[in-house]
Structure formats: C-alpha cells, structure tokens
Design brief:
Helices cover 59% and strands 0% of the residues. It contains five helices and no strands. It has helices spanning 6-17, 34-37, 41-55, 61-64, 70-84. The longest helix is centred in the middle third of the chain and has 15 residues, at 41-55.
C-alpha cells in the first residue's frame, strides 16, 4: 500500500464533509485540530470510513477519540498499514 499523505487526507475530508471554510484546509494543517478546521465528529466518522475503503486500514474505535489532528490520522493510518505488511 502507498503511504497516505496530507493531500490524500485533504481530498477525503472535502469529499466526505466538504470544505468547512474557504481556506480551512489550505497551508500547513498537520497540527491543527479538526475542530479548528471546522470538522465535527460525524464528518470524521465518514472520513475514517472512507479511509478504510480507499486504503484498507481499519481505525480502531478506541483510537478515534485520540485522533485530533491530520498528523494523528496520517500517523495512525501509515503505522497500521506498515504493521499489516
């Protein structure tokens, strides 16, 4: 599997939940909390379902609450994919 990158995550967020603000996903968003970016828990659940479909990585339910930033999600997805290889 190819590593998921920030552009992949941006695309999935927009596809699943739209762009919260005109510029909410521009620039360096790796360490900004999803709440600051305008995404709520429902939008994130849809995003995680899409990540599973697109990348084959299941994010454990108990880990979801800890995924507060795009960096957290990318680390989880890429670490999980690496462990599965």
């Amino acid at each position: 599997m190819t590593e998921m990158n920030i552009d992949d995550l941006r695309r999935i967020l927009i596809d699943c939940a739209g762009e919260a603000d005109n510029d909410s996903l521009s620039g360096n968003i790796l360490d900004r909390e999803f709440e600051q970016l305008g995404y709520d828990s429902l939008a994130l659940l849809e995003t995680f379902a899409r990540i599973t479909a697109d990348f084959g990585v299941q994010i454990p339910d108990e880990a979801i609450a800890d995924l507060r930033t795009p960096r957290d999600v990318l680390d989880m997805v890429n670490d999980t994919a690496t462990q599965a290889s």
